């Protein structure tokens, strides 16, 4: 494989969905890291961009670099602790949209397959029933498409994904386990599936939390950068 070249999108620098004294919620584009990487050339991230304007901001959860959508940062230590606890206790609610390479044989279901890092092949993850950590995803087909490519019909489906756990690459591995990897997934899709989209077709569309100051339930949404019809 060619060496990875990090070229994150530059505009908009920050797509802010909501902000108050305790939290800031953003729509992260595909191709931008959630936090800085180890190398200096990988410093650009949603976290570093936010911290340039809001120095006290801290990350409380992450999205894969290739995943777009709703991401939240805390602006105070108290808010960070409060919201991190919600994620740990799984009291938050969230869903994603994804476009798949192929159409699942069922219209909905749950995938309960444990995951761990595939260390020799990082950053790939793998299913491991002995050493893997529990991972559960509920899924539902919401649309099917037939795309014509060079006179060949390539079937695809749009799914609504509701992860219960938050393992690295969980949704990507679980869709692969269905036999329908996510379009544009350079780690897990076929060559045709990678070529079928300009970037990973996975979007964090909704996040619901309890506000750390008011205890009010707050819901944040971001429109996917791809069609879900």
From TrEMBL:
Enzyme class: isomerase
Catalytic activity field: uridine(32) in tRNA = pseudouridine(32) in tRNA; uridine(746) in 23S rRNA = pseudouridine(746) in 23S rRNA
Record's keyword annotation contains Magnesium: no
GO BP terms, alphabetized: enzyme-directed rRNA pseudouridine synthesis; tRNA processing
Pfam families to which the protein is assigned, alphabetical: PseudoU_synth_2
Record EC number: 5.4.99.28, 5.4.99.29
Job of this protein: Dual specificity enzyme that catalyzes the synthesis of pseudouridine from uracil-746 in 23S ribosomal RNA and from uracil-32 in the anticodon stem and loop of transfer RNAs.
Record protein name field: Dual-specificity RNA pseudouridine synthase RluA
Lineage: Bacteria, Pseudomonadati, Pseudomonadota, Gammaproteobacteria, Alteromonadales
């Amino acid at each position: 494989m060619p060496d990875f070249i990090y070229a994150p999108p530059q505009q908009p620098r920050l797509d802010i969905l909501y902000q108050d004294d305790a939290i800031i919620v953003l729509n992260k584009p595909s191709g931008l890291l959630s936090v800085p990487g180890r190398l200096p050339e990988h410093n650009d991230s949603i976290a570093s961009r936010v911290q340039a304007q809001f120095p006290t901001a801290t990350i409380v959860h992450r999205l894969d670099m290739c995943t777009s959508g709703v991401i939240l940062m805390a602006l105070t230590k108290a808010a960070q602790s409060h919201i991190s606890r919600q994620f740990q206790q799984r009291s938050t609610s969230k869903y994603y949209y994804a476009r798949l390479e192929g159409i699942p044989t069922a219209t909905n279901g749950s995938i309960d397959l444990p995951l761990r890092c595939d260390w020799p092949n990082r950053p790939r993850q793998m299913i491991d029933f002995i050493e893997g950590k529990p991972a559960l995803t509920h899924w539902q087909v919401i649309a099917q498409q037939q795309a014509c490519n060079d006179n060949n019909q390539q079937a695809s489906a749009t799914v609504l994904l509701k992860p219960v756990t938050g393992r690295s690459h969980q949704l990507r591995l679980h869709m692969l386990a269905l036999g329908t990897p996510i379009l544009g997934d350079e780690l897990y899709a076929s060559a045709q599936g990678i070529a079928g989209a300009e970037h990973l077709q996975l979007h964090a569309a909704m996040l619901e939390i309890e506000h750390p100051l008011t205890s009010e339930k707050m819901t944040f949404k971001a429109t996917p950068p791809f069609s879900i019809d």
